[in-house]
Amino acid sequence: MYIVVCYVTYLAISLAVTVWVARTLRRSGGSFLIDAFHGNRELADSVNHLLVVGFYLINVGYVALALRTTVQVGDARAAMELVCEKLGLVLIVLGAMHFLNIYVFSRLRRRGQAELRPPMPPDARISIPSES
């Protein structure tokens, strides 16, 4: 019976944290992408949505794969330890995915800003003669 409680607790907490992180990334990453795509909100929203879908697929897949255990759970202490161990791994994966998304956002933004700069700084000024 303890193992079923472990599975349900693990799934509920893991999926809730995954959804929370994904929503946070979507909300906060949007402004980076709008800047990276020079104000093209439609393109930024599209890319943001694709990144969030990928985030969900990878993390929910990991949660599902990590569900299985061979540990015998005979008491509440063993159940708590199993759930905490599994949640800890999920949180590490979520943290790694979060930083990967931040890296992707910053690279997109940096590339977008680099396109706005002139290829070389000006080295002289051109004087326009005044009409007299």
Can you describe this structure?
The chain crosses the membrane at residues 6-25, 46-67, 87-105. This protein has 132 residues and is mostly helical. The protein has one domain (2-114). The chain contains 3 helices and no strands. It has helices at 2-36, 41-65, 76-114. 17% of the residues are buried. The model has no long low-confidence stretch (mean pLDDT 83).
Strand content range: under 5%
Overall shape: it is rod-shaped
User: Helix-strand pattern, N to C?
Assistant: HHH
Structural class: mainly alpha
Q: Kindly state the mean pLDDT as a whole number? A: 83
The figure for the number of domains is 1
Biggest beta sheet summary = none
Q: Please, how many helices? A: 3
Helix content: over 70%
- N-end to C-end Cα span: 97 Å
Q: What's the alpha carbon Rg, rounded to whole Å?
A: 24 Å
Transmembrane segments: 6-25, 46-67, 87-105
Keywords: Membrane, Transmembrane, Transmembrane helix
Overview in brief:
Helix content is 75%, strand content 0%.
Question: What's the SSE blueprint?
Answer:
Elements: H1 2-36, H2 41-65, H3 76-114
Transmembrane segments: 6-25, 46-67, 87-105
Keywords: Membrane, Transmembrane, Transmembrane helix
Defining traits:
mainly alpha, rod-shaped, 132 residues, 3 helices
